[in-house]
Amino acid sequence: MEYFIYALNHTYTDDSHTDTKFLGFSNCLEDLEELKAKAILMPGFRDYPDCFVTDCYILDKIHWNEGFKEVIGEIGRDYIEKGDEIDENHISIKELGLNTVFSVSHYYTIHTFLDDERYIGVFSSLEKAEKAIEELKNKPGFKDYQNDFNISELDLAVLLWSSGFGSV
User: Fold this and answer.
1) What is the pTM of this model?
2) How far apart are the C-alpha atoms of 48 and 18, rounded to whole Å?
3) Whole-angstrom Cα distance, residue 115 to residue 48?
4) What does pLDDT average to over the chain?
């Protein structure tokens, strides 16, 4: 059996660009609805109330297994367009009793206004996150930027955007 986790994102398009904001992970849909209810009251999010997206990701799955060859995506960010396919063979991580997970990404600066960023995956332990990085370090694209992986330990059901967003 494979385990999966829920993720809440907010992806909107305005006159000049498309932007995605990752809001948090949870082991149940009810918690994600609570995160969404908090976020929708904040500047930016309330301006685009229909742009919240719930995805599922398979725990301990490495994305970008073959590496990469070029910068793709909106302003250099190459996020996974949608979550992983989940079926009856997948179980919510709720069964594992986890309070935190480890999110791995890879990003480096191309020039002053452009970063290249890829989401690698969400992992059940620091050891598995570190192992994923070791597996990717010598793959195309990653091998040129081996020190640009990032591991973040994230609490479940916590809103990662606490004040909204907007023009400064």
Assistant:
1) 0.86
2) 12
3) 25
4) 88
